[in-house]
Design goal:
The protein is mainly alpha-helical and about 500 residues long. Helices cover about 70% and strands about 0% of the residues. It contains 25 helices and no strands. α1 runs antiparallel to α2 and α15 packs antiparallel against α16. The chain starts with about 20 loop residues before the first helix and ends in a 10-residue tail after the last helix. This is Tetratricopeptide repeat protein.
């Protein structure tokens, strides 16, 4: 079977970072508008996302006519998905957004329509890495809250939680999810969002509490696959790989829509890659893309697998294609490291520059990209700046990912004693770092080696390569070199 990708990528524009929009300012504008008796004109006047051209009918022709016929069905499918926390296809989201834009233009006091529109913008922004959708989403959701307040507006709270998670603002996500949970304590989606928020905050006790409550619910047949997928994510973070795979396999089999099945197949691909089963990972990513050609994470996951298989030319093409479709700074960082591993310094530098550009673009739309920028700076830029960024991020939301990144950044500036504390947090299950990550184990091993802790370093580096021998085209090679430099353990004298 030929798994090659043939579409080339395209360069992306840059832009300086800008501060996050002020929610207080938006509230003041909306309050003024709503209390002045000119709701429709005022709300729509401040609304940059509603463009008459964006929802105008397509040009006449057979293809446009078929698209017009499909749009209402797709919009209905997306409406069901976004109001229940399920994945939706990109064409369905686009159809729903067009429908809801027309609805709020015609009925600007329809709080539910504004909430649905905002949530659909969030999901489209996630699917396309189009962070420009996030300010639009925030405005729509805040508009909904001005009409029906937080004590009753469940749909807007769900949307604001999803928006906060997409922006990596886990504190806000937790606040909104808790409010939604109070309104509807028997809904599975609020617990799912709380689990995501508490994972980002490093509060694993709270994750366990929400997970226990989620598993005590009795979801219907439509919700059951999503609950199983959520259980799989928790099991993965605890290092229970077999349980995670079993849950996701059942979820994919029970999924009711192509978009939902593609999402679970993609997660199965990620799990297979993390355990070093590359052919299985490729099989799952290919299956996901057959179900939903616009599945957000599968193209970059597929590129990652091709790189690990040594199919470097195909991997480069696949990464460039993925970035052209969904310009994510994390994927640009991986492509840069692939180029670096191949000795292509100029291409690597171009890709690293794109990491900055894409992160700046996301930051200007309210996304917290300190983690990806810290990782980039630690290895390919200013390591001291990485430490400063990641210290601030860890103070705000001390999840496992940030602990690992901060520990590595500290190692890069020679602060290995402190670095080991964070690396241990990221890899020690008793401290929350239960996920089995080859990268985290490599980082810990390199830090231990720098501290001349040869035995622990040897064990950590061996663990990294046992978890996944080809976890990174750049860092797996470094792990092998570091392990070889340690040599064999000294012979242990046997008492006579």
């Amino acid at each position: 079977m030929d798994n090659r990708v043939s579409e080339p990528g395209t360069p992306l524009p840059s832009g300086p970072p800008a501060p996050r929009r002020s929610r207080r300012l938006l509230r003041r504008v909306l309050i003024t508008a709503l209390t002045s008796g000119v709701v429709a004109g005022a709300v729509l006047a401040i609304w940059p996302g509603i463009d008459p051209e964006a929802v105008s009918p397509p040009a006449p022709g057979p293809r446009a006519h078929r698209a017009q016929l499909r749009a209402p069905v797709q919009a209905a499918q997306a409406l069901t998905a976004v109001t229940s926390g399920m994945p939706a296809t990109l064409p369905a989201l686009t159809a729903l957004i067009g429908q809801q834009e027309q609805r709020v233009r015609a009925q600007p006091q329809d709080a539910k329509a504004w909430a649905v529109l905002g949530t659909a913008y969030v999901e489209r922004g996630r699917a396309t890495a189009g962070a420009a959708d996030f300010p639009r989403a925030e405005k729509a959701l805040e508009t909904s809250l001005r009409m029906v307040d937080e004590e009753q507006n469940l749909q807007a709270l769900d949307g604001l939680t999803a928006l906060s998670l997409a922006r990596r603002d886990f504190t806000e996500a937790k606040r909104y999810a808790e409010q939604a949970q109070e309104l509807a304590p028997a809904r599975w989606s609020s617990y799912s969002q709380l689990i995501d928020a508490d994972t980002g905050l490093g509060d694993y006790d709270a994750v366990g509490d929400s997970f226990d409550k989620l598993m005590a619910l009795k979801p219907g047949a439509a919700e059951r696959p999503a609950v199983m997928a959520r259980a799989a994510a928790v099991y993965r973070n605890r290092g229970w790989r077999e349980d995670a795979v079993a849950q996701l396999t059942d979820a994919a089999a029970a999924a009711r829509t192509p978009a939902e099945q593609a999402a679970y197949l993609t997660q199965l691909g990620q799990l297979a890659f993390e355990r070093g089963d590359l052919q299985d990972a490729l099989r799952h990513y290919d299956a996901a893309l057959r179900q939903d050609a616009d599945q957000p994470a599968a193209p970059a996951g597929r590129a990652r697998v091709l790189a690990a298989l040594g199919r470097s030319t195909q991997a480069v093409t696949a990464y460039r294609t993925a970035l052209a479709r969904r310009p994510d700074p994390r994927d640009a960082l991986e492509l840069g490291e692939l180029y670096e591993s191949l000795g292509m310094a100029a291409q690597a530098r171009e890709s690293y520059d794109r990491v900055r550009e894409l992160a700046q673009r996301e930051t200007s739309n309210g996304v917290d990209d300190e983690l990806v920028l810290g990782r980039y700076e630690a290895d390919h830029g200013d390591a001291q700046q990485a430490v400063e960024r990641l210290r601030g991020e860890y103070d705000r939301q001390p999840g496992t990912e940030v602990a690992d990144a901060l520990g590595w950044a500290l190692h890069r500036v020679g602060e290995d004693d402190e670095a080991l504390e964070y690396a241990t947090t990221a890899t020690d299950g008793t401290k929350g770092g239960g996920v089995r990550s080859a990268l985290y184990a490599y980082h810990r091993g390199a830090i231990e080696s720098a501290l001349e802790l040869d035995g622990p370093a040897r064990r950590s580096l061996q663990e990294a390569l046992q978890i996944s021998p080809a976890f990174s085209p750049l860092w797996a090679r470094e792990a092998k070199s570091a392990l070889a430099a340690l040599g064999n353990p000294p012979d242990v004298a046997v008492p006579g």
